[in-house]
Amino acid sequence: MSFISLLWVLLLGSLLGLELIGKVPPTLHTPLMSGANAISGITMLAALTLIVKAEGNIPLLIIGSVSLGFALFNVVGGFFVTDRMLAMFSRKPSNKK
Amino acid sequence: MNLPVIIKFVIDLLAVLLLALGIKGLSKVKSARDANRLAAFAMSLSVVGLLSYYLGTSGIAIQSWIWIIIGSIIGSLFGAILAKKVPMTSMPETVALFNGCGGMSSLLVALGVAIFPISGGQENFDFFKSLINEVSISVSIFVGAITFTGSIVAMAKLQGWLSTPGWTQSKVRHFVNIVFAVASLIAFFDLINGNTSSIWLLVIVSSLLGIGVTLPIGGADMPVVISLLNSYSGIAAAAAGFVVDSQLLIVAGAMVGAAGLILTQVMCKGMNRSLVSVLFGGSLSAQSTASSGTGEYTNITSCSVEECALTLEAANKVIIVPGYGLAVAQAQHTLREVTKKLEQNGIEVVYAIHPVAGRMPGHMNVLLAEADVPYEQLKEMDVVNPDFPATDVVLVLGANDVVNPQAKNDSSSPLYGMPVLDVQEARTVFVIKRGMSAGYSGIKNDLFDLPNTSMVFGDAKKVLNDLIGELKDLGVGEK
Lengths: 97, 479
Prior knowledge:
The structure holds 2 protein chains of 2 kinds. By secondary structure, chain A is mainly α. Chain A has helices at 3-20, 29-39, 44-52, 58-89. The longest helix of chain A has 32 residues, at 58-89. By secondary structure, chain B is α/β, with parallel strands linked by helices. Helix content of chain B is 59%, strand content 6%. Chain B is built from 18 helices and 6 strands. Chain B has helices at residues 3-25, 32-56, 62-85, 91-115, 131-159, 172-192, 198-214, 222-244, 247-270, 275-280, 284-288, 305-314, 324-329, 332-344, 363-370, 381-384, 406-409, 460-473; strands spanning 317-322, 348-353, 378-380, 393-397, 428-433, 453-457. Chain B has a 6-stranded parallel beta sheet. In chain B, helix 1 (3-25) runs parallel beside helix 9. Chain B starts with a helix and ends in a 6-residue tail after the last helix. Chains A and B meet through helix 1, helix 2, helix 3 and helix 4 of A and helix 1, helix 2, helix 3, helix 4 and helix 8 of B.
């Protein structure tokens, strides 16, 4: 993948992000922030790559593993806590206007 | 292209699509919960895609599997436990903590790649083949470190473990932060020039910069900072994507980074604050003592819980205005008991939710939902404002600036222009408050001086408990 095409990916990704949330009801600010935060833990893929490519280099394996741990803490915790918040809104979906 | 490459390509594409739909869905009440699960599914899909790609090409060594499993189990376990255990009132600091760890992860990846050779037995640092690599590693370390230390400071301040040191409110802090920023820049260029030892300097000064920037910011502005740091952690992830050459990481990181910026902007608007003044202005009370809005109260009426109960009993329509103080006192369940009694007596009760009520925007909705308040009783500001003139009693619980009429009437007030709840239009207003201290803006609240406002002094939880007792004595809500 050439650098230029990666830059295109960056640009288009940013534009997509800007467009995705136009109007958010204040109710959802906290869950949205928490959910987006969980997604930013996508850096776990970088940690995985590091571990796979470490080829027996123990310090690198450890750094990768710690990094993976931090990322998954972010991802798993983030999604669970967001779900917990959102579950409260949808507890009585039948009476919702 | 061989098969593993094609499969990974398709999976990555699908994952990006699902993540985008997830973020989109999270901004609507109806679809939010499913959207969150969709995003979680997309994330697991991306892991499957990556692992299957390596299995199909280079293979994954047993040793790598072991470290993958160790890291995943420990991280996921702690994350899941914390997410299940943490009380809803501590949500802001929890998000900050998660966010900091995401930044830490990007930082570690960049450090790992910088210090150790990747794929092949080259000498250390030989992989610094291109400028791009060096720049992306530096950016990843810089943003990752700021995200980490900034989030940890934000968490510590919200938890009350850390107060705002006095020097951070003076001009000194700008000087200190500029020094850190310049030092980061020097380390950054030094690193790109090939002086690899300056990587540690970069780690240290960008960590200090994260602390220095976050420390002066007041507690009520913290949600904005967390949202901004969340955006940073997306940028850090995108930078890490350049480091390990992953398009998926770049797209997802950029998406979160950009969406986080928009969300930060939306939050600032709701609080009538500009991002610049949040970041560089210090805490608001420090500025406003010099400006208008200070002054003595002249016409305070205070009343007992008993009077409050009597008035409530005679009312037809009651609006509750919950605020930060209610969240801090954790009185949402007690409040729910009070309103249940009123409802049993045939009194109409609604909750007026200011966009920034609670400890972070939308937090109050979560807290009240947790206390079993029916969703349809929560009214947003624009919906509820026309109702105040037809309301008998308004109960203001731990809210202050969001009910200050100055924001509408006094163009010299720092609050002027902030959207507020027009509680003064109601026949009677009870403000339950610990004392006469100002809100977080440090500005006098004209509402308290109005003839139809009565103050009930005390801790929100205690007053509400007393109120339950008084209402019981009056026979309100007896079946």
